[in-house]
Design goal:
The structure is a single chain. The chain has 6 helices and 11 strands. By secondary structure, the protein is of the alpha+beta class. The strands form 3 sheets. It has a 5-stranded mixed β-sheet with strand order 2-9-5-4-3, with helices on one face. A 4-stranded antiparallel β-sheet has the order 1-7-8-6, covered by helices on one side. Helix 1 (4-18) crosses helix 6, helix 3 (142-150) packs across helix 6 and helix 5 (171-181) packs across helix 6 (194-215). The structure holds zinc ion. Zinc ion binds at residues 246, 248-249, 251, 266, 268-269.
Length: 271
């Protein structure tokens, strides 16, 4: 599933291909997505020039002359740009004409979303309102993170994966950051000492930045219809390694269910 670093890598790859292009027609294959703007709604974009490709949490936000398009990649969504008028690909859901090609979206599992609103309505959009700070910006501070943890007796892993605390910390990155910070994922958030929370915040930022750095080399895959999506093969310390030896103490890593999610951790290094 694309997480924040994958979506940000996608944004960076698309930006130079989209900004400055004029939008033409919109076409849909008729395959249903989790949420999809109507053809009439998308027709509002015709003739407008793309000004920006932004990201909020895992939503890509394309703005064009006062209008905005929100794209969520769901579990298997891929955006890519093609020249000319290519035939529809398998699992392709929609395409948007550009001055020099097509922005195309394919999604075999159909959990993605395509939404349209005016740029003025963006800040109050129901999908965006209530989201917590972006982890890689100055808006996410130690103070804000410690305050959020002090308010909750839920497991620390659930709190860092809650988009109200901070956006974009998915299951993989939560498990890796908790291991790096030496914190048991089951521990009540309000019972983790502030110094350890500061360490955890630094580790969350570090794991996301490593993923972004390794994403640079996969950028070209967003430009072709047959390319694999830009998932990152960064070396993971715990995620997916249940039963294998901890890289620090060599004891086998444990797998538990926590808040409905699988969680791998070291029962001896994480307290
Ligand atoms: Zn260990």
């Amino acid at each position: 599933m694309p997480e924040l670093p994958e979506v940000e890598t996608c944004r960076r790859a698309l930006e130079p291909l989209l900004v400055g292009r004029q939008i033409g027609s919109y076409r849909s294959s008729g395959l249903a997505l989790r949420a999809q703007a109507s053809a009439g709604d998308m027709a509002e974009l015709g003739g407008r020039v793309i000004e920006q490709v932004a990201r909020r949490s895992k939503y890509l936000i394309i703005t064009a002359s006062g209008q905005a398009v929100l794209v969520h990649l769901g579990m298997t969504g891929q955006l890519f740009v093609s020249q000319g008028e290519p035939p529809w690909a398998r699992h392709e859901h929609w395409r948007l004409e550009l001055s020099d090609g097509w922005l195309r979206y394919r999604d075999p599992r159909r959990f993605g979303m395509l939404l349209r609103c005016s740029e003025a309505a963006l800040a109050a959009h129901p999908r965006l309102v209530g989201l917590g700070p972006e982890p890689l910006t100055e808006r996410w501070t130690d103070e804000a993170f410690i305050a959020a943890c002090k308010r909750s007796s839920r497991a620390i892993k659930a709190v860092i994966m809650d988009a109200k605390t901070v956006v974009g910390v998915g299951n993989i990155y939560a498990a890796e950051a908790l291991f790096a910070a030496g914190i048991d994922p089951r521990r009540s958030a309000d019972r983790v000492a502030p110094a350890r929370l500061r360490r955890l915040r630094r580790e969350i930022i570090a794991v996301l930045e490593r993923a972004l750095d390794s994403g640079g080399s996969t950028v070209r895959t967003f430009l072709s219809s047959d390319g694999a999506p830009g998932y990152f093969a960064q070396q993971l310390a715990v995620y997916g390694r249940q039963g294998e030896p901890c890289r620090t103490c060599e004891r086998p890593l444990r797998l538990i269910r926590l808040g409905g999610r699988s969680t791998v951790f070291c029962g001896s290094c994480q307290r």
